[in-house]
Design brief:
InterPro entries: Homeodomain-like_sf (IPR009057), RNA_pol_sigma70_r4_t2 (IPR013249)
Distance between the termini: 52 Å
Strand content: 5-15%
Structural class: mainly alpha
GO molecular function, one term: sigma factor activity
Strand order of the largest sheet: 1-2
Number of helices: 8
Number of domains: 2
Order of helices and strands: HHHHHHEEHH
């Protein structure tokens, strides 16, 4: 039986993340990642350790509770439930068990998808590629009604320059996110699957940088010498 499966059985028995992590020598974030990616769910009626003072403990006798009745601090996400819209509060509850490395990974995927999509949206066919965009229009006064229209012309070189600037900025952000992910991997917060997926993504990103879009395109490679 794999380590993850053993941890899952302990989770079903009511063990906490910290207890499972200590038992199997992994981080709490790794346990949370297992739960998130493999959809661990406790069955109703599963044993849970009770909290509170030991049986027959008299330390609290004669002392009123320090927490007022109906205090929202005793309710999970009480602050969120009070000030955030219901939809937002539900999202907070849904992601609370997601480890930081998986949150970062999801953001990396979103950014990477946006870069891929931009390749199509901002594609410039050739030097004669011209885009005509209606900027504003107004109705002119007079006996005969007419409309005055003002257009903005986007030439090929302008669109290409805008694309290169946007792509450079987006790739810089993506590279920084990948570096953060690798730092989490080196700190022991990632399992084997989490490490392999970032290596696969890095290879795909390199292919975007190096592959020419068509046979007529020219790829320039710049080698920066270290000081």
């Amino acid at each position: 039986m794999e380590l993850r499966d053993k941890a899952y059985n302990d989770y079903l028995d009511g063990m906490k993340y910290k207890e499972i992590a200590e038992k199997y020598g992994v981080s709490i974030n790794t346990v949370k990642s297992w739960k998130q990616r493999h959809n661990w769910q406790r069955k109703k009626g599963a044993h849970k350790k009770k909290k509170g003072a030991p049986f027959r403990n008299t330390n609290s006798v004669g002392h009123a509770s320090s927490v007022p009745k109906q205090n929202s601090n005793a309710v999970k996400h009480g602050l969120f439930a009070k000030y955030l819209p219901p939809e937002t509060a539900k999202l907070v509850q849904a992601i609370e068990d997601t480890p930081p490395i998986d949150v970062l990974w999801e953001n990396i995927c979103i950014k990477y998808a946006a870069i891929i999509r931009a390749q199509k949206l901002m594609y410039v066919k050739d030097q004669a590629d011209l885009t005509k965009v209606l900027k504003r229009e107004k109705e002119s006064s007079g006996k005969i009604k007419s409309w005055e229209k003002e257009y903005e012309l986007q030439f090929a070189w302008d669109k290409q320059a805008a694309f290169l600037t946007a792509q450079s900025r987006a790739m810089g952000t993506l590279n920084n996110m990948i570096k953060q992910y690798e730092e989490l991997c080196r700190s022991g917060q990632a399992d084997e699957e989490q490490q392999l997926r970032i290596e696969k993504l890095k290879a795909e990103v390199d292919s975007i940088k190096n592959d020419a879009p068509d046979k007529d395109a020219v790829t320039f490679t710049f080698d920066r010498k270290s000081d």
